[in-house]
């Protein structure tokens, strides 16, 4: 793969675009690789491959142990309750600040919401 310095790529942008039509071109800034320029055809080909791979993984998920959204939520709820109980017990034992448990519960709730969003996204 050919590498160009950012300044060279900037000064010869038309040539960069022509080269990217034939092969991926790395762009470096002060010797550090920062980007790759590829043709639209290559980008579309890679995007299609990625979609196909995700479709295959989605088909394989049930055989590999994916338990489903409602089961995941129930498991997460039980884990949250267990962690909340442990945190509450530890906070009482250590006489922690009163807002420590509130912060932990807020973080647990945030994690729950993130997982819920991730499971619902296509």
Percentage of helical residues? 55-70%
- The DSSP helix count reads 5
Number of strands: 3
N-to-C SSE string, H for helix and E for strand: EHHEEHHH
Q: Could you list the spans in which at least 5 consecutive residues all have pLDDT below 50?
A: 92-98
Biggest sheet: strands, sense, closure?
A: 3 strands, mixed
Q: Can you give a write-up of this model?
A:
By secondary structure, the chain is an alpha+beta fold. The chain contains 5 helices and 3 strands; from the N terminus they run βααββααα. It has a 3-stranded mixed sheet with strand order 1-2-3. The two termini are 34 Å apart. Mean pLDDT is 75; it is low at 92-98.
Summary of the model, kept short:
The chain is about 70% helix and about 10% strand. It has helices spanning about 5-10, 15-20, 40-60, 70-95, 100-120; strands at about 1-5, 25-30, 30-35.
How do the strands and helices of this protein lay out in sequence?
Blueprint: E1 2-5, H1 6-11, H2 13-20, E2 25-29, E3 32-37, H3 40-60, H4 69-94, H5 98-120
Parallel strand pairs: 1-2
Antiparallel strand pairs: 2-3
Helix pairs in contact: 4-5
